[in-house]
Design a protein that fits this description.
With 270 residues, this protein is α/β, with parallel strands linked by helices. It has a single domain, classed as Ribokinase (UDP-N-acetylmuramoyl-L-alanine:D-glutamate ligase), CATH 3.40.1190.20. The strands form two sheets. Strands 3-2-1-4-5-8-9-10-11-12 form a ten-stranded mixed beta sheet, with helices on both faces. Strands 6-7 form a two-stranded antiparallel sheet. Strand 4, helix 3 and strand 5 form a beta-alpha-beta unit. It starts with a strand and ends with a strand.
């Protein structure tokens, strides 16, 4: 069974961060070690809410204990998500370097912000992710806003998204919510080429959709699918879950019969 170390946020109510990714990975047969960087009652857009930050030294201590018990041996992948400070980024980078040296695939979900709100991390934290984690990434999974912020360019059209993805230092970029001829696209840019899946625009921001999509993609890759096929399957699964969910988020438990083995979404060359 593939094993993933997932370092990100955790919520009590809803499905964002590791509270989305861990279930998706497990449901697709991947063993997950979820390590929280912050614990929240819910998406902070919901009030009232409560937050407990995990101090960087405690994050390092937890990872050290996992390693001492042998639970980080022979990892297939490590995925980082929400890292609230530059100090958290430094801890994550330390462990990513170690685990990559031992053969783990590194997926960096650079969670720094979204449209229309912009950055929701301190700029120092976002800069630290750009400088310390993106160059280590085998795969980076930014949304449209994050892709433009890291590339220093406004993403106005499909050509701009493709150009921005090629600027990032990650080996492979899997970007979501990119413009594509009046629609939105999930864009995969690698050394071998570029591909995209096109979807309709959603009427509202869907908390956790990016976390869920990245987890589905990683799970399919670890199950032996090519990165392009994983793009088709992750897009299909995410769209099916969104379409079948009501309310403000994704009901990933109630819709699991739709996203565990979907028909692949059409993929075109970008």
């Amino acid at each position: 069974m593939p094993t993933v170390l997932a370092i990100s946020s955790q919520v009590v109510f809803g499905h964002v961060g590791n509270s989305a990714a861990a279930f998706a990975l497990r449901r697709l047969g991947v063993h997950v070690l979820p390590v929280p960087t912050i614990v929240l009652t819910s998406n902070p857009a919901i009030s009232p809410h409560a937050i407990q930050h995990i101090a960087p030294d405690k994050l390092d201590e937890m990872l050290g204990a996992l390693a001492a018990n042998g639970w980080l041996d022979r990892l297939d992948a490590v995925q980082t998500g929400y890292l609230p400070s530059a100090a958290h980024v430094a801890v994550a980078a330390k462990w990513v370097r170690r685990l990559k040296a031992e053969g783990a695939l590194y997926v960096c979900d650079p969670i720094i912000g979204d449209e229309p709100a912009g950055l929701y991390l301190p700029e120092a934290s976002a800069r630290a992710i750009a400088e310390e984690l993106l160059p280590l990434a085998d795969v980076a999974t930014p949304n449209r806003f994050e892709l433009g912020w890291f590339a220093g360019a406004e993403i106005a059209d499909a050509a701009g998204a493709l150009a921005a993805a090629r600027v990032l230092p990650a080996e492979c970029v899997l970007a979501t919510s990119c413009p594509a001829d009046g629609r939105l696209a999930n864009l995969l840019v690698a050394r071998a080429g570029a591909w995209r899946t096109e979807v309709g625009a959603h009427e509202r921001l869907i908390p956790g959709a990016g976390d869920f999509f990245a987890a589905l993609w990683l799970a399919h890759v670890l199950r032996g699918e090519s990165r392009v096929t994983a793009l088709a399957l992750a897009t299909a699964g995410t769209e099916a879950a969104i379409a079948a969910s009501g309310g403000e988020g994704i009901d990933i438990v109630g819709t699991q019969g739709l996203w565990t083995a979907p028909q692949p979404w059409p993929v075109v060359k970008a």
